[in-house]
Amino acid sequence: MRAAVIREPQKALVMEDRPKPKPGPGQVVIKIKACGVCHSDLFVQQHAFGFEQYPVVPGHEVAGVVDEVGPGVNWPSVGDRVGMPWLYSACGHCKYCVSGNEILCREGQVTGVTTDGGYAEYMLAPAAFVAPIPEALDFADAAPLMCAGLTVYNGLRNAKYAVGQKVAVIGMGGLGHLAILFAKAMAGRVAVISTSSDKEKEARAMGAEKFINAKQEDVVEALRGWDGGPDIILATAPNVASMTKAFPGLAADGTMVVLGADAGAIQVTPMDLIGGRRKLLGSPSGGRSDIRATLEFAAAHGVKPVITKFPLEKANEVLESMHKGTLRNRAVLMME
Description:
This protein is an alpha/beta fold and 336 residues long. Helix content is 27%, strand content 24%. It has ten helices and 17 strands. The strands form four sheets. Strands 3, 4, 5, 8, 9, 16 and 17 form a seven-stranded mixed beta sheet that branches. Strands 12-11-10-13-14-15 form a six-stranded parallel beta sheet, with helices on both faces.
């Protein structure tokens, strides 16, 4: 089978011809149809997480069909449409796992980071952790939902989103555009904060009622002028300066949800926290119940990411474009 492999940090992907994997007890083999390209894949290439296991096949936005099942697997069955998200497995017995918060498990394994992921024609996966893909979603649309979609949908839920609330989205990249689509589908009011004026038309076409150009406007003033400010800010762009700038614009009892990872520090004053009872919240992707909820919601409400398809052999070019900031839309690697 074809596989794109990061053999060592700071090196380009290398195409390899590998044997098709065989499933062991409790495992399935997924014939991959599509795999989304996430900014985290670039982090794996750069060794930015620090816990990567090389060599590794990256990719944690996997969509495909079950090709083979191992001993003891009663579900899923061969031919079932399944996906594999960020969380590859968890211990199952710690306090986080037993409380339904397995994404916080300290023994959790990460697809495409600590174990081989989806930049390949086939991959091994634990049967207990694959997610069923609804028939209403095709593979290319389902793939980015495995991380980007899950991350923004779960971010809204972790912030205790309520119908009709105002949601401001920082950035309109791979996460940001899905944040707009999910917030609108959840009957929210949406504003977009961006440094690119050419994104306004696209943002409004997706349903944003307000667009704030961070280069030309006072972001806090613009947010507060939006009927008192947003109830939730989804910080999707990996830029701590934009988060720092926007935080005081939250409405009272508002929450900023940090989704985009950056190396710097968010600067928040105690008075901005205390005075408006505002909250700063980090939100990782999600566990098994979360990815199922995300996929079911997307299928029921017609939420589909804006994607550009590439063959697997173009993976290096895609990552390079992402690194340069020139990649538009959510990239999806197609295996056929």
